Amino acid sequence: MLTLRKSQDRGQANFGWLNSKHSFSFGHYYDPEHLGFSVLRVINDDIVAPGAGFDAHGHRDMEIISYVLEGSIEHKDSSGNIQTLPAGEFQLMSAGKGIFHSEYNASKHHPLRFLQIWIEPNKVGPRPSYQQKSFGKALGLTTIATPTGENNTLKITQEAKLHQLIIGAGETFQFNQSQGNNLYVHQITGTVHINNTALSAGDGAQITHEETLTFCNESRSDITALIFELP
């Protein structure tokens, strides 16, 4: 079964320096019908003004993934990590027993756009950790995060997987689920048809009890999506 969540139906918050769209309830946006999906709690599509950002704040017992779409993030945290996260790279911060961090737009002239993703862990209280990596833009399926960190993926504290899917113009991709009964697809660019349901940029789909999915790109350019395999 596939349940579509259109981009325009997401929650929205605009603070001037930050324009954010929320796929699930977050901050002042509350929707009892969209509190999360399985262990996936947050997908925020954030646009941050030049030079602005999130001051130091704390997290605990959450797997926090950032994926930069445009610009770069300046990251600092209480574990001593000081990093720049450019467009196309993924960051996974396991908050564990507690961590403070700040995130700023590294540019004084251009906006920053990134996805902020929270996944609930299956262990509480471990030591915080930080991972960052570029996985490139190869066509097809690229696995980003796994519970074991196998094949140089990011290691996530949950029985979940995150994949990047890029499909060439006019191409089709068949996805076979490897674990669990829950999938979530977040469309980043272009329009894809999943078993004849169309997802455009910003749309999301909750998918249950479907072992095989067919993704069709009927456009004249590449399209990109994120696929979450969830328990």
UniProtKB/TrEMBL annotation:
In this protein, which residues make up the domain named Pirin N-terminal?
A: 10-119
The entry's free-text remark on the cofactor is:
Binds 1 Fe cation per subunit.
What are the names of the required cofactors? Fe cation
Annotated ranges, domain Quercetin 2,3-dioxygenase C-terminal cupin: 144-230
- Could you tell me the superkingdom of the organism this chain comes from? Bacteria
**What SUPFAM superfamilies does this protein's entry cite?**
RmlC-like cupins
Cite the InterPro entries for this sequence: Pirin (IPR012093), Pirin_N_dom (IPR003829), Quercetinase_C (IPR041602), RmlC-like_jellyroll (IPR014710), RmlC_Cupin_sf (IPR011051)
Q: Name one Pfam family in it.
A: Pirin
Which amino acid positions bind Fe cation, per UniProt? 57, 59, 101, 103
Respond yes or no to whether keyword Iron is given for this record: yes
Q: Which GO terms of the molecular function aspect are on file?
A: metal ion binding
Keyword entries, A-Z: Iron, Metal-binding
Is the Iron keyword given for this protein? Answer: yes
Query: What CDD domains does this protein's entry cite?
Result: cupin_Yhhw_N
Q: Which family does it belong to?
A: Belongs to the pirin family.
Q: What is this protein called?
A: Pirin family protein
- Name its species: Pseudoalteromonas citrea
Q: What is the lineage of its organism?
A: Bacteria, Pseudomonadati, Pseudomonadota, Gammaproteobacteria, Alteromonadales
